Amino acid sequence: MPPARLLLTMGDAVGIGPEIIARAAAAGATGGCVVIGDVQVLRRAARLFGDGLPLAEVASPADADALPPGCLAVCPPPGLPPGLEQLPWGRIDARCGAAAAACIEAAVRWLQQGAAAGLVTAPLHKEALAAAGVGFPGHTEMLQALATAPGAAPPPVRMMLANDELRVVLVTIHVALRRAIEQVTFDAVLQTLRIAQAAAQGWGEARPRIAVAGLNPHAGEGGLFGDEERTIIAPAIAAARALGIDASGPYAPDTVFMRARHAPGHPGEFDLVVAMTHDHGLIPVKYLGVAHGVNVTLGLPFVRTSPDHGTAFDIAGRGSADPSSLKAAIAHARRLAGAPSRDPQGASDGAGPG
């Protein structure tokens, strides 16, 4: 098995996922990747920008080795709904949700069989997934369940979003804000710090500096605006420090990201920021530039990255989607998997030192 082989799921068939895959392939950024998806959907996407992209359907990821250089291998998963290439662009459709789930399930099976070094997922649509009856709100939760052995406890996972300037790990992700606040517990914060520490050590940082953002305005202002910082977050930080983790805080969530940002002439004070909720953590990273952001799932038994944007139904089918974030996700997955980047244009993988 070539170490550079990655599996690339096509995402929602009527979103921009197939187009950004085709564009990345046309730019030479997908060498060693096998798309898990529908070859006709990929062909329709390639026609959006008039590129004669060579595509070939293969029965398994290993069959891609026999294809000529520059030919993108597409491996259809079992149970793929027919006629996806005939569906209108940019509309929620249960068939697309079912197809996206089938791609993810097949990709995980192949990863567990050792068929590839990592996984890159193109965007899916959560409403389409729900319409198909899939009982997961998104990629992260589905991958966590699929990675769990029968009878075993699910591996604790966390979402990290990163670019060249900032890396943020989240305690809670895709739940209503009221539920997210309830999920900010001592155990959840401490576990997040342990996962972040282990991940950073895996990519070569022996003792990463981890800043912990508070939950409430001004990190609670000594209990005036909430006591979660005093009763939950600070004790978890103290427990982490007792384990040798260089964690500090809780810091006001409206300023800690500026302190952690690595920019020209402004070295960041921290290597990672742990944020309590999805939007607290992702807004600052995405504001710095969606095009080069990468989503990394920490804690899985395999490498998984993705672009930091969604299906973009508003521009799907127009031929204008930007593949930069997908290219960054592919390059970052190669690096985490120990494989060299093959992007001939030398594009950044968008995730800084991590």
How would you characterize the overall build of this protein?
The chain is α/β, with parallel strands linked by helices. It has two domains: 1-154 and 301-346 and 350-354, Isopropylmalate Dehydrogenase; 164-288, 3-Layer(aba) Sandwich (Isopropylmalate Dehydrogenase), CATH 3.40.718. 34% of the residues lie in helices and 14% in strands. It contains eleven helices and twelve strands. The chain has helices at 17-26, 39-47, 94-112, 126-131, 139-146, 177-183, 186-202, 228-242, 256-260, 278-287, 324-336, and strands at 6-9, 33-36, 55-57, 72-75, 118-121, 158-162, 167-170, 210-213, 247-251, 272-275, 294-298, 303-307. It has a twelve-stranded mixed beta sheet, sandwiched between helices. β1 (6-9), α1 and β2 (33-36) form a beta-alpha-beta unit. α1 (17-26) packs across α2 (39-47) and α3 (94-112) crosses α5. The longest helix has 19 residues, at 94-112. The chain is elongated. The two termini are 25 Å apart. The model is unreliable at 339-354 (pLDDT under 50).
Report a brief summary of the structure.
It is built from eleven helices and twelve strands. It has 354 residues and is α/β, with parallel strands linked by helices.
Topology of this structure?
Elements: E1 6-9, H1 17-26, E2 33-36, H2 39-47, E3 55-57, E4 72-75, H3 94-112, E5 118-121, H4 126-131, H5 139-146, E6 158-162, E7 167-170, H6 177-183, H7 186-202, E8 210-213, H8 228-242, E9 247-251, H9 256-260, E10 272-275, H10 278-287, E11 294-298, E12 303-307, H11 324-336
Parallel strand pairs: 1-2, 1-5, 2-4, 3-4, 5-12, 7-10, 8-9, 8-10
Antiparallel strand pairs: 6-7, 6-11, 11-12
Helix pairs in contact: 1-2, 3-5, 7-8
